TrEMBL record:
InterPro entries: Aminoglycoside_PTrfase, DnaJ_domain, J_dom_sf, Kinase-like_dom_sf, Pre-mRNA-splicing_ERAD. It is found in: Cytoplasm; Nucleus. The keyword Glycosyltransferase does not apply. It comes from the Eukaryota. It comes from Clonostachys byssicola. Residues 113-132, 140-197 are annotated as: Disordered. Keywords: Chaperone, Coiled coil, Cytoplasm, Nucleus. Residues 21-85 form the J domain. This is J domain-containing protein.
Length: 681
């Protein structure tokens, strides 16, 4: 029952015009109520219902009864119907009272009006049908367009899948060809051969102490092969479990002895020699760099020639510790030369920005040009190596200091306080993610990580372990990170190998390898703090914090809080620490949750492929977070800020230049032997 049908007034007028008596049709009088009309309608249409009439169902008659019920039940439509019927009766009475001639004229006029009305109604009906057909045509055309678009998308997806499959097949073929070419190149260059059972090429005649006896390395390898074969034989013979367990223990013991021998040989190989000569393992590291980047190892000759031309023919020595992304050579002066492939080249704007903010802790970098490089096999030119000249940062890397007997808790305390100074310096030079309304701070350009935070957070959703809740927390703060948190210039690879320290005191002397430096949210690089508070275990599978790591954390945050208080524009105690915690979690997820496969960042870490990284990720996320400031902290920091605001004057450009010159003068002349101990990135 559609009492609110907007067509009811039109139906009422049409039935009145056609002189259809709806009251008589339903068997009610003009005073019948709505309730009486519905009751009478049910009685009259009982036999007309489709269920009763079945094959004799008259749709037009059923529709007429329904419309009669609706018109007489609706007050507005009923009023229109009654007024129209009264008007018809009045006109009929007037015509009956007319004389014959006037009645004829009235009938003709009424007939003309009726004819015009019928014509107009027919035209309206035709227009409605035309409109309905046009709508159906447009809907069909849209459906066909959608189907065509879907078909094209499926075809494009099929072509993309096919192209991707071909690309992967091509990559696998190229990878096999590169490995084969690398092996042939290594053979052609006369590299020393060694056993393929470990990551270290140990000479076969290297003497190893095994308890009370001594053996050569090749004898240990043979013992391992015999022990493994014994285990296989026991499996085939279905011997007892006790015999099998003893055989397994024998294999594990021999593997332990081999691992200890390789570790000892590595330490001896990387130790500096008194005559300044280069150990064979250094050459292996260098050749590995060239082969890994698809360069012929002979390309090293071109790099050494370039270094000789820069040093005016004086002797240049490769660094004892070669980095993953570059080939590093020490010059006779206080400088080093780095040769980098195009995918690892430095952004000079980043180097200048880092030097401007962190001063003498960042090496001065100059671009020296390129060196043409040969592809594997030496048949074709394969791009170029970009060359950079840098100052030598005094000291040794934290990675090297950790393995020295002199590394003590005092060294760690000094380093932690210096790191707090570094983070505070970056915070003081922080900028809002959006330009300030008064124009006091300029907009910075975002780097590779900063410009792809949304994509990387989406990639991190693939983590399904206990770390997934931290991903969800960071995603909930995505708007705050992008629009409200201060962004600071951040070192993109803050690991012990890139932290230079004084071996006598542990104080920080500099940060190297700024290739990945960029502007990132406050606290993003705090994953580096976790790296400093512990080290990788002896087996290389886990990470262990130092015993005093809780005290070191407290020392770091107390010093950082005091230093950060001198930046009033964006420092708000409660929101500040919330931002720091959010940035810390974001940094740990980005640097430890996404795998680094030779520069490819397209998957998250997994337990079967990245055992150490997944261990670090979970350990760092669950480590103690920065504490909240209580009311005493807030009052104390407010006093510090007021005092600094009253008495502190920012240094002039001239004074900064003088300080930089003094810092340079404090760096003593570095000879070749000392330079060889520095760690290259």
């Amino acid at each position: 029952m559609s009492e609110s049908n907007p067509d009811l007034p039109r139906f009422a007028a049409e039935y009145a015009e056609k002189e259809i008596d709806l009251f008589d049709l339903l068997g009610v009088d003009a005073l019948a109520s709505k309730k009486d009309i519905h009751r009478t309608w049910r009685k009259r249409t009982l036999k007309l219902h489709p269920d009763q009439a079945k094959d004799n169902f008259d749709a037009e008659k059923w529709e007429l009864f329904e419309r009669a019920r609706d018109v007489l039940s609706d007050a507005n439509a009923r009023a229109i119907y009654e007024s129209s019927m009264k008007a018809k009766l009045l006109r009929k009475q007037e015509r009956d009272a007319m004389d014959q001639e006037r009645k004829k004229f009235a009938d003709e006029l009424e007939a003309a009006e009726n004819a015009h009305r019928m014509k107009q109604q027919a035209q309206d009906q035709q227009d409605r049908e035309t409109l309905q057909k046009e709508r159906e045509r447009l809907a069909e055309a849209q459906r066909m367009r959608d189907e065509e678009r879907k078909r094209q998308a499926e075809a494009e997806q099929t072509m993309d899948d096919l192209a991707e499959a071909k690309r992967r097949i091509k990559e696998r073929k190229e990878e096999r060809a590169r490995k084969k070419q690398a092996k042939e190149s290594m053979k052609a260059s006369g590299q020393p051969k060694g056993p393929a059972n470990g990551v270290v090429l140990v000479p076969g005649d290297y003497v190893v102490e095994t308890g009370t006896t001594t053996k050569q390395y090749w004898e240990l390898v043979c013992d391992k092969l015999r022990a493994v074969q014994a285990v296989k034989n026991i499996n085939q013979e279905d011997a007892g479990s006790e015999q099998f367990r003893k055989a397994e223990l024998q294999v594990q013991e021999i593997r332990r002895q081999i691992a200890e021998a390789e570790t000892k040989y590595r330490q001896e190989a990387t130790a500096p020699r008194a005559d300044g000569s280069i150990h064979a393992s250094i050459n292996l590291q260098i050749d590995d760099f060239f082969v890994r980047n698809e360069f012929d190892p002979q390309t090293r000759i071109a790099c050494d020639s370039f270094a000789a031309s820069v040093s005016c023919g004086r002797k240049c020595i490769p660094a004892q510790h070669q980095g993953y992304c570059s080939y590093t050579v020490f010059l006779p002066t206080r400088h080093i030369l780095q040769f980098r492939p195009v995918q690892f080249k430095l952004d000079m704007q980043v180097c200048c920005e880092a030097r401007k903010i962190y001063g003498a802790l960042v090496p001065t970098t100059s671009y020296m040009g390129t060196v043409n490089a040969q592809a594997l096999g030496g048949s074709t030119i394969r791009g170029a190596l970009h060359v950079y000249l840098q100052d030598v940062i005094p000291g040794i890397s934290l990675e090297a200091l950790r393995h020295m007997p002199c590394f003590s808790p005092k060294h760690r305390r000094n380093l932690i306080e210096d790191l707090a100074d570094i983070f505070a310096t970056g915070f003081h030079h922080g900028k809002p993610p959006k330009p300030a309304t008064n124009g006091s701070q300029s907009v910075f350009s975002r780097g590779m990580v900063g410009s792809s935070l949304a994509e990387r957070l989406s990639l991190l959703q693939a983590l399904h372990g206990p770390e997934s809740k931290y991903v969800e927390q960071v995603q909930q703060q995505a708007e705050v990170i992008e629009s409200k948190m201060p962004w600071c210039f951040t070192h993109g690879d803050l690991v012990p190998a890139n932290i230079m320290v004084n071996p006598d005191t542990g104080h920080l002397t500099g940060l190297i390898d700024w290739a990945e430096g960029e502007w990132l949210p406050l606290g993003t690089s705090l994953y580096g703090l976790e790296e400093v508070l512990g080290q990788v275990s002896a087996d290389g599978k886990t990470f262990e914090y130092y015993e005093d790591h809780l005290c070191l954390r407290a020392r770091f945050w107390n010093r950082f809080a005091v230093l950060a208080a001198s930046s009033p524009p964006i420092f708000q105690p409660r929101s500040f620490m919330e931002h720091v915690r959010t940035g810390r979690t974001l940094g740990i997820l980005l640097w430890r949750g996404i795998a680094f496969d030779d520069g490819k960042i397209d998957r998250v870490v997994s337990e079967d492929r990245d055992e150490l990284e997944i261990f670090k990720l979970r350990l760092f996320l669950e480590a103690p977070t920065p504490p909240e400031f209580n009311w005493r902290h807030r009052a104390w920091l407010s006093c510090i800020w007021v005092l600094r605001f009253v008495f502190y004057r920012p240094p002039s450009a001239k004074s900064l230049a003088v300080e930089d010159k003094v810092a340079k003068d404090k760096i003593t002349e570095v000879d070749i032997e000392y330079g060889g101990k520095c760690v290259a990135d």
